[in-house]
Amino acid sequence: MSIDKVWVLAEAADGNPVSTTLELLTKARSMAGTVEAVTWGGDAAAIAGTLGDHGATTVYDVGDLGGKLPGPVVAGAVAELIRSGNRPDVMLVPTTYDGRDIAGRLSARLDLPVLTNVVDLQVEGGEVRSQHAAFGGTQIVTARFTGDGPGIFVVRAKSFAAEASGGAAPQVQSISAPDLGATGAATIVERHVEERSGPKLDEADVVVSGGRGLGDAEHYAMVEELAKLLNGAAGASRAIVDAGWVPYSHQVGQTGKTVKPTVYIACGISGATQHLVGMKGSNNIVAINKDQEAPIFSVADLGVVGDVHKVLPKLIEALKARG
Amino acid sequence: MNVVVCVKQIPDPAAPAALDAQSHTLVREGKLILDDSDAYGVEMGLQLAAEDGEVTLVSMAPNGEVSGLRTGLAMGAAKAILVSDGALKGSDALSTAKVLAKAIERAQPDLVIAATESTDGYTGTTPVQIAELLGMPSVTFAKKISVANGSVRVERQTEAGYDEVECPLPCVVTVTAGVVEPRYPSFKGIMAAKSKPVDQLTVADLGLDASSVGWAGAGQEITGVAAAEERGAGELVVDEGDAHERIVAFLEQLKLV
Ligand SMILES: Cc1cc2nc3c(=O)[nH]c(=O)nc-3n(C[C@H](O)[C@H](O)[C@H](O)COP(=O)(O)OP(=O)(O)OC[C@H]3O[C@@H](n4cnc5c(N)ncnc54)[C@H](O)[C@@H]3O)c2cc1C
Ligand SMILES: Cc1cc2nc3c(=O)[nH]c(=O)nc-3n(C[C@H](O)[C@H](O)[C@H](O)COP(=O)(O)OP(=O)(O)OC[C@H]3O[C@@H](n4cnc5c(N)ncnc54)[C@H](O)[C@@H]3O)c2cc1C
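Above: the input entities. Below: the structure tokens describing the complete assembly.
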């Protein structure tokens, strides 16, 4: 057995491939001779160049979905392609809302298992081994598929660094799903986009996150102001997302985003394992917490035992004073 | 409207989780509890079925475990189906979905609710696999759900905000934490739960082949477990009114200011 062909699920947003797609294409190049991508949503022409530049030689395009949720449609089209005899050894799927839906649907359609929460992949003796962050990232589990492929791996963001290969523009080939019956019926009737200023949370060089220690929703403004002063993005613990202080798109952690900025500043966050798994890969971590025993300090390069209501205003003033 | 809520019964997350050194599966000793993530689903189900319907809980768990189900019944669910069978040990997400799908079919639901992901295994794929096996559409990551005229309207979280999604019944919806505030079981509820029906089924009862579930059916295996690399703690300073200066110096050294 050997790994010859890898497919990468190429999700796009705003006319660009999402960063995990490029990370996965880069990894795929080191795993197999042939790397191809599957995309949908009407952006294929716009993103093909970038996908090629990261190693994809063919892009299979499901096209515009007419507002349908992608899960069943994309999985249906991929399953058809595989049934027609074009099968990869490995399929890499980004851990995104739609990626997980597509992987789940594909798994049940093809009666194949899925390995999820993958943070690393190795090819050993013609076989893929995957590493998984388990129990909030405290343990690393290694796993493999025992049966025939394709092996479907759902990989977490930032598991690999994206690097262009300088590959040529790929060939774009249309594919389509068979009749999906009832399964394809979920339809988007309206999209709501939250306003964001400054860099994206998972791409920012500096991330300032706030937690329940801020006391109330109004004090999140300090986190936003500090993030802005540092040209960074504002993040949050799940506690304050659940409490409705900030939208879910700010959440860092197991069920939120994975971030790896140059510096992560945690303000009033205890450091639960589910939070740590999303940020402990940061290059530098600063934590402000009034409890000396808070677990966040166990990963902090600079820990400040103090009150966010005292430290943050002074920090903001000091940075403003420098202009 | 009849609602099935999938509820996973898990070891208390407050106790440290461990994998069995030999079998590499989760050690499940002692009492299991209702996964917190599913308490939201139970509450949502109860609210949606309040007027004209009932909530049936469906769970797959080893050793006839019912304590988590009792919590859901105490919250107000009418009955429960529990699939428990030695042959289920070692099941992966897909075989779990096969079992749950068969059990769910029995309740003939208009709506199936599950959590976006469980607290212990968190593969997050089981509900969608269930939907595909049942031939139903699905909407994941719901932060708001309403039902009208034979379809659900869901606010589905997205990277950039949320989408309003419409989906005909019957379908599967996965809910995120915070979708509703789960009620605490009342004393009356706890007492009533003791006499509510829990239908216990085996793999054979569901008409499934034992070789398609458990160890036999799992298409994957764990080959090793290791502690993740610990990130060492650095310097800890106690704020005496000047800690912000330390942070500024730290950022300066990184050339960020
Ligand atoms: C399945 C599952 C998935 C999860 N996913 C995530 C996830 O993706 N992201 C996530 O963040 N969490 C996640 N959680 C939740 C996680 O377990 C914690 O509950 C959460 O991270 C706690 O948020 P917090 O640190 O803001 O709040 P708390 O744990 O309440 O901590 C607040 C901290 O603030 C400190 N504090 C209080 N007042 C002050 C003050 N004046 N100044 C300074 N410090 C102060 C306290 O000492 C405390 O350490 C998940 C949980 C589960 C079960
Ligand atoms: C650390 C770890 C990593 C694992 N990795 C993988 C993997 O990569 N691939 C894989 O196939 N399996 C994996 N498993 C096994 C997998 O967790 C189990 O097969 C499990 O039965 C599937 O559940 P989940 O918790 O992952 O489900 P999720 O898909 O996260 O569950 C979502 C929701 O589905 C419902 N649900 C799930 N299970 C049940 C149940 N038993 N009863 C009732 N409702 C339920 C609940 O509403 C739940 O909140 C892993 C297990 C562990 C402990």
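Note for the figure: Chain B touches chain A through 76 residues (CB under 8 Å).
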